[in-house]
Write a structure and sequence with these properties.
Oligomer: single chain
Structural class: mainly alpha
Distance between the termini: 26 Å
Number of domains: 1
Largest sheet: none
Order of helices and strands: HHHHHHHHHHHH
Number of strands: 0
Length: 284
Protein backbone atom coordinates (compact mmCIF):
# COMPACT_ATOMS: atom_id res chain seq x y z
CA UNK A 1 0.00 0.00 0.00
CA UNK A 2 1.47 3.30 -1.12
CA UNK A 3 1.26 6.67 0.62
CA UNK A 4 -0.75 8.02 -2.32
CA UNK A 5 -3.30 5.20 -2.00
CA UNK A 6 -3.65 5.86 1.75
CA UNK A 7 -4.06 9.61 1.19
CA UNK A 8 -6.79 8.99 -1.40
CA UNK A 9 -8.57 6.69 1.05
CA UNK A 10 -8.16 9.34 3.76
CA UNK A 11 -9.80 11.95 1.54
CA UNK A 12 -12.64 9.55 0.73
CA UNK A 13 -13.19 8.75 4.41
CA UNK A 14 -12.97 12.38 5.55
CA UNK A 15 -15.56 13.48 2.98
CA UNK A 16 -17.96 10.57 3.18
CA UNK A 17 -18.05 9.94 6.96
CA UNK A 18 -20.07 13.06 7.67
CA UNK A 19 -21.83 13.56 4.36
CA UNK A 20 -24.92 11.31 4.08
CA UNK A 21 -23.35 9.11 1.40
CA UNK A 22 -21.88 6.18 3.43
CA UNK A 23 -18.15 6.29 4.10
CA UNK A 24 -17.94 2.50 4.39
CA UNK A 25 -19.57 2.11 0.98
CA UNK A 26 -17.11 4.51 -0.62
CA UNK A 27 -14.14 2.76 0.98
CA UNK A 28 -15.48 -0.57 -0.33
CA UNK A 29 -16.06 0.88 -3.81
CA UNK A 30 -12.68 2.59 -4.10
CA UNK A 31 -10.84 -0.42 -2.69
CA UNK A 32 -12.59 -2.87 -5.02
CA UNK A 33 -12.15 -0.68 -8.10
CA UNK A 34 -8.44 -0.64 -7.29
CA UNK A 35 -8.47 -4.44 -7.03
CA UNK A 36 -10.33 -4.83 -10.33
CA UNK A 37 -7.91 -2.50 -12.11
CA UNK A 38 -4.87 -4.27 -10.66
CA UNK A 39 -6.22 -7.80 -11.11
CA UNK A 40 -6.48 -8.62 -7.39
CA UNK A 41 -9.26 -10.96 -6.24
CA UNK A 42 -12.15 -9.03 -4.64
CA UNK A 43 -12.35 -11.60 -1.86
CA UNK A 44 -8.87 -10.73 -0.67
CA UNK A 45 -8.44 -8.25 2.17
CA UNK A 46 -5.19 -7.90 4.10
CA UNK A 47 -4.83 -7.10 7.78
CA UNK A 48 -3.17 -3.86 6.75
CA UNK A 49 -6.31 -2.84 4.80
CA UNK A 50 -8.51 -3.62 7.80
CA UNK A 51 -6.25 -1.60 10.10
CA UNK A 52 -6.08 1.32 7.66
CA UNK A 53 -9.90 1.41 7.59
CA UNK A 54 -9.94 1.56 11.39
CA UNK A 55 -7.34 4.33 11.49
CA UNK A 56 -9.21 6.36 8.86
CA UNK A 57 -12.30 6.20 11.07
CA UNK A 58 -10.13 7.24 14.01
CA UNK A 59 -9.03 10.24 11.97
CA UNK A 60 -12.62 11.37 11.46
CA UNK A 61 -13.27 10.76 15.17
CA UNK A 62 -10.45 13.20 15.96
CA UNK A 63 -12.18 15.72 13.68
CA UNK A 64 -15.44 15.36 15.64
CA UNK A 65 -13.68 15.66 18.98
CA UNK A 66 -11.90 18.86 17.92
CA UNK A 67 -14.95 20.48 16.30
CA UNK A 68 -17.36 19.68 19.14
CA UNK A 69 -14.80 19.97 21.95
CA UNK A 70 -16.76 22.65 23.82
CA UNK A 71 -20.02 20.71 23.69
CA UNK A 72 -18.26 17.48 24.66
CA UNK A 73 -16.69 19.13 27.72
CA UNK A 74 -20.08 20.54 28.73
CA UNK A 75 -21.71 17.12 28.32
CA UNK A 76 -19.02 15.35 30.37
CA UNK A 77 -19.08 18.00 33.09
CA UNK A 78 -22.88 17.94 33.31
CA UNK A 79 -22.90 14.14 33.42
CA UNK A 80 -20.52 13.86 36.38
CA UNK A 81 -22.31 16.65 38.24
CA UNK A 82 -25.62 14.88 37.61
CA UNK A 83 -24.18 11.61 38.92
CA UNK A 84 -23.23 13.40 42.11
CA UNK A 85 -26.47 15.34 42.55
CA UNK A 86 -28.71 12.69 40.96
CA UNK A 87 -30.33 15.45 38.92
CA UNK A 88 -30.30 14.91 35.15
CA UNK A 89 -32.69 17.74 34.31
CA UNK A 90 -30.14 20.01 32.60
CA UNK A 91 -29.83 20.03 28.80
CA UNK A 92 -26.30 18.62 28.70
CA UNK A 93 -26.94 16.01 31.41
CA UNK A 94 -29.86 14.75 29.34
CA UNK A 95 -27.68 14.66 26.24
CA UNK A 96 -25.15 12.54 28.14
CA UNK A 97 -27.87 10.02 29.02
CA UNK A 98 -29.26 10.03 25.50
CA UNK A 99 -25.82 9.32 24.04
CA UNK A 100 -25.25 6.57 26.62
CA UNK A 101 -28.57 4.84 25.96
CA UNK A 102 -28.17 5.46 22.23
CA UNK A 103 -24.75 3.82 22.19
CA UNK A 104 -26.09 0.73 23.96
CA UNK A 105 -28.95 0.55 21.47
CA UNK A 106 -26.55 0.87 18.52
CA UNK A 107 -24.41 -1.98 19.81
CA UNK A 108 -27.44 -4.28 20.16
CA UNK A 109 -28.48 -3.52 16.57
CA UNK A 110 -25.04 -3.50 14.95
CA UNK A 111 -23.47 -6.53 16.64
CA UNK A 112 -25.72 -9.17 14.98
CA UNK A 113 -25.05 -7.47 11.61
CA UNK A 114 -21.28 -7.65 12.05
CA UNK A 115 -20.64 -10.80 10.00
CA UNK A 116 -23.01 -9.65 7.25
CA UNK A 117 -21.21 -6.30 7.07
CA UNK A 118 -17.82 -8.02 6.74
CA UNK A 119 -19.06 -10.16 3.85
CA UNK A 120 -20.47 -7.11 2.05
CA UNK A 121 -16.92 -5.78 1.75
CA UNK A 122 -16.49 -8.41 -0.98
CA UNK A 123 -19.91 -7.76 -2.57
CA UNK A 124 -19.78 -4.16 -3.84
CA UNK A 125 -22.79 -4.69 -6.12
CA UNK A 126 -25.00 -5.26 -3.07
CA UNK A 127 -23.42 -2.22 -1.42
CA UNK A 128 -24.59 -0.28 -4.48
CA UNK A 129 -28.17 -1.43 -3.85
CA UNK A 130 -27.98 -0.26 -0.23
CA UNK A 131 -26.71 3.13 -1.46
CA UNK A 132 -29.79 3.41 -3.67
CA UNK A 133 -31.99 2.67 -0.65
CA UNK A 134 -30.14 5.35 1.34
CA UNK A 135 -30.89 7.85 -1.41
CA UNK A 136 -34.56 6.94 -1.28
CA UNK A 137 -34.66 7.39 2.50
CA UNK A 138 -33.08 10.86 2.17
CA UNK A 139 -35.72 11.88 -0.39
CA UNK A 140 -38.59 10.56 1.75
CA UNK A 141 -37.38 12.22 4.97
CA UNK A 142 -36.88 15.56 3.22
CA UNK A 143 -40.37 15.42 1.66
CA UNK A 144 -41.89 14.65 5.06
CA UNK A 145 -39.90 17.38 6.82
CA UNK A 146 -40.95 20.03 4.31
CA UNK A 147 -44.62 19.41 5.12
CA UNK A 148 -44.09 20.12 8.83
CA UNK A 149 -45.13 23.53 10.11
CA UNK A 150 -43.16 23.21 13.37
CA UNK A 151 -39.82 21.53 14.06
CA UNK A 152 -37.90 21.00 17.29
CA UNK A 153 -34.29 21.94 17.89
CA UNK A 154 -33.86 19.72 20.97
CA UNK A 155 -33.34 15.96 21.03
CA UNK A 156 -35.45 13.80 23.33
CA UNK A 157 -34.99 10.20 24.46
CA UNK A 158 -37.37 8.73 21.86
CA UNK A 159 -35.61 10.49 18.98
CA UNK A 160 -32.23 9.49 20.38
CA UNK A 161 -33.18 5.80 20.49
CA UNK A 162 -34.62 5.90 16.97
CA UNK A 163 -31.46 7.59 15.66
CA UNK A 164 -29.38 4.97 17.49
CA UNK A 165 -31.31 2.17 15.78
CA UNK A 166 -30.61 3.87 12.44
CA UNK A 167 -26.93 4.13 13.38
CA UNK A 168 -26.86 0.42 14.16
CA UNK A 169 -28.35 -0.47 10.76
CA UNK A 170 -25.63 1.64 9.17
CA UNK A 171 -23.13 -1.05 10.16
CA UNK A 172 -23.96 -2.38 6.69
CA UNK A 173 -21.82 -0.67 4.01
CA UNK A 174 -24.13 1.34 1.77
CA UNK A 175 -26.41 2.44 4.58
CA UNK A 176 -25.04 5.88 5.43
CA UNK A 177 -24.64 6.40 9.18
CA UNK A 178 -25.11 10.15 9.00
CA UNK A 179 -27.74 9.79 6.28
CA UNK A 180 -29.93 7.34 8.21
CA UNK A 181 -29.55 9.13 11.54
CA UNK A 182 -30.25 12.60 10.13
CA UNK A 183 -33.20 11.25 8.14
CA UNK A 184 -34.55 9.69 11.34
CA UNK A 185 -34.17 13.05 13.05
CA UNK A 186 -36.16 14.72 10.27
CA UNK A 187 -38.88 12.07 10.52
CA UNK A 188 -38.96 12.78 14.28
CA UNK A 189 -39.75 16.43 13.51
CA UNK A 190 -36.25 17.77 14.26
CA UNK A 191 -34.46 20.43 12.22
CA UNK A 192 -31.68 19.29 9.90
CA UNK A 193 -29.05 21.13 11.98
CA UNK A 194 -30.23 19.61 15.28
CA UNK A 195 -30.35 16.13 13.76
CA UNK A 196 -26.90 16.51 12.15
CA UNK A 197 -25.21 17.82 15.29
CA UNK A 198 -26.64 15.03 17.44
CA UNK A 199 -25.75 12.48 14.76
CA UNK A 200 -22.09 13.49 15.01
CA UNK A 201 -22.10 13.42 18.82
CA UNK A 202 -23.79 10.00 18.84
CA UNK A 203 -21.04 8.61 16.60
CA UNK A 204 -18.23 9.35 19.05
CA UNK A 205 -18.54 6.36 21.48
CA UNK A 206 -19.14 3.86 18.66
CA UNK A 207 -16.15 4.96 16.56
CA UNK A 208 -13.96 5.20 19.67
CA UNK A 209 -14.96 1.72 20.85
CA UNK A 210 -14.47 0.15 17.43
CA UNK A 211 -11.07 1.83 17.01
CA UNK A 212 -9.87 0.51 20.37
CA UNK A 213 -11.31 -3.02 20.31
CA UNK A 214 -11.53 -4.10 16.68
CA UNK A 215 -7.75 -4.35 16.01
CA UNK A 216 -7.30 -6.74 18.93
CA UNK A 217 -10.18 -8.93 17.72
CA UNK A 218 -9.40 -9.09 14.00
CA UNK A 219 -5.65 -8.56 13.62
CA UNK A 220 -2.71 -10.68 14.71
CA UNK A 221 -0.50 -8.32 16.73
CA UNK A 222 2.64 -9.82 15.16
CA UNK A 223 1.57 -8.37 11.80
CA UNK A 224 1.79 -4.78 13.01
CA UNK A 225 5.55 -4.67 12.40
CA UNK A 226 4.95 -5.47 8.71
CA UNK A 227 2.54 -2.57 8.10
CA UNK A 228 3.49 0.48 6.05
CA UNK A 229 3.14 2.91 8.93
CA UNK A 230 4.03 5.97 6.85
CA UNK A 231 1.02 5.32 4.63
CA UNK A 232 -1.27 4.61 7.60
CA UNK A 233 -0.21 7.78 9.44
CA UNK A 234 -0.62 9.97 6.36
CA UNK A 235 -4.03 8.48 5.63
CA UNK A 236 -5.15 9.12 9.22
CA UNK A 237 -3.93 12.74 9.20
CA UNK A 238 -5.62 13.48 5.87
CA UNK A 239 -8.85 11.83 7.09
CA UNK A 240 -8.86 14.07 10.20
CA UNK A 241 -8.18 17.30 8.28
CA UNK A 242 -10.71 16.62 5.53
CA UNK A 243 -13.23 15.41 8.11
CA UNK A 244 -12.96 18.62 10.15
CA UNK A 245 -13.46 20.80 7.07
CA UNK A 246 -16.38 18.63 6.01
CA UNK A 247 -18.15 18.96 9.39
CA UNK A 248 -17.76 22.73 9.38
CA UNK A 249 -19.24 23.29 5.95
CA UNK A 250 -21.77 20.45 6.02
CA UNK A 251 -23.47 21.92 9.10
CA UNK A 252 -23.73 25.25 7.28
CA UNK A 253 -25.12 23.46 4.23
CA UNK A 254 -27.83 21.51 6.07
CA UNK A 255 -28.94 24.66 7.84
CA UNK A 256 -29.97 26.15 4.49
CA UNK A 257 -30.37 23.43 1.89
CA UNK A 258 -32.17 20.13 1.32
CA UNK A 259 -30.51 16.72 1.57
CA UNK A 260 -32.06 15.82 -1.79
CA UNK A 261 -28.73 16.55 -3.51
CA UNK A 262 -27.13 13.72 -1.54
CA UNK A 263 -30.12 11.51 -2.34
CA UNK A 264 -29.46 11.97 -6.05
CA UNK A 265 -25.76 11.29 -5.48
CA UNK A 266 -26.38 8.05 -3.57
CA UNK A 267 -28.77 6.75 -6.22
CA UNK A 268 -26.44 7.60 -9.12
CA UNK A 269 -23.36 6.12 -7.42
CA UNK A 270 -25.38 3.13 -6.24
CA UNK A 271 -26.62 2.34 -9.76
CA UNK A 272 -23.14 2.86 -11.19
CA UNK A 273 -21.59 0.57 -8.57
CA UNK A 274 -24.17 -2.16 -9.12
CA UNK A 275 -23.80 -2.06 -12.90
CA UNK A 276 -19.99 -1.99 -12.85
CA UNK A 277 -19.45 -4.82 -10.38
CA UNK A 278 -22.41 -6.98 -11.35
CA UNK A 279 -22.10 -6.74 -15.14
CA UNK A 280 -18.46 -5.92 -15.83
CA UNK A 281 -16.56 -7.19 -12.80
CA UNK A 282 -18.90 -10.16 -12.46
CA UNK A 283 -19.18 -9.85 -8.70
CA UNK A 284 -22.56 -9.89 -6.94
Amino acid sequence: MSILQAIIMGIVQGLSEFLPISSSAHLVIVSNIYKVLTGIELAQESSQEIFLDIMLHLGTLIAVLIYFRKDILKILKAFFIALKTKDFSSKYAKLALYILFGTITTVFIAFPLHSVAENLVFSPAIVGILLIITGGILFFSEAYSKKLTEKCTDINLKTSILMAIAQGLAALPGFSRSGLTIATGLLSKRTRTAAAEYSFLLSIPIILGASMLYPFIKIDMTEFTQFNWSSIIWGTIVSAIVGYICIKYFLKFVGKYSLAFFGYYCIIIGIGTFVFFDMFAGKF
